[in-house]
Specification:
This protein has 11 helices and 2 strands; from the N terminus they run ααααααββααααα. It has helices at residues 3-10, 14-23, 29-32, 49-66, 71-83, 88-91, 105-108, 110-119, 124-136, 150-160, 165-173; strands at residues 93-94, 100-101. The protein has a two-stranded antiparallel sheet with strand order 1-2.
Length: 174
């Protein structure tokens, strides 16, 4: 793993490392693709998907520290935070009224996540845990209803394997 990725995993503010990568021309193309991707202002007043991603990785670092996560879980959380919206690069649309949507971006983010992490020489065991978090990071939408069943939760737990609901909760929080 490259020294910059090691610094990303150790930094209290990993967005600085990502911005350094950008400034020095080392930003992975999958993250580069998010720079000008707009988001719905109601849900994301911060602006582009890239800015949102920087904010999420910094929140993930805070959560990792607060929860005293193991080095392994910190790796999973930070890489899932970094890659969770990569699918927005291909799945974002603006309708005739200017409404921005990114339907299907979670599933669309799997391929670029794998590609980016393989290019960064991240181990397969890490990729196996990050990808279900990317795919399921929107699964909580609709689970606030009082009629959510234990069966639905069990299915979500199965889809998350080999990771778990606690890691998903951290991603959603970030």
């Amino acid at each position: 793993m490259d020294e910059l990725w090691i610094e990303f995993l150790r930094s209290e503010k990993p967005s600085i490392v990502i911005e350094y990568m950008r400034a020095t021309g080392q930003l992975p193309k999958q993250l580069q693709a998010l720079i000008d991707i707009p988001q719905d202002e109601l849900h994301h007043p911060e602006g582009s998907a890239y800015i949102h991603t920087l904010m999420v990785v910094d929140e993930a670092a805070l959560i990792s520290s607060r929860e005293a996560l193991s080095e392994y879980d910190n790796l999973i959380l930070r890489f899932a935070a970094l890659t969770h919206d990569l699918g927005k690069a291909t799945n974002t649309q603006i309708d005739e009224n200017g409404k921005v949507t990114s339907y299907g971006h979670a599933e669309a983010g799997i391929e670029p996540t794998i590609e980016m992490l393989v290019d960064a020489r991240i181990g397969f065991s890490i990729i196996r845990e990050v990808t279900p978090l990317v795919r399921e990071h929107m699964a909580h939408i609709g689970y606030y209803m009082p009629d959510v069943t234990t069966r639905q939760v069990r299915r979500l737990m199965q889809r998350l394997q080999p990771t778990n609901i606690q890691m998903l909760a951290y991603i959603v929080e970030a």
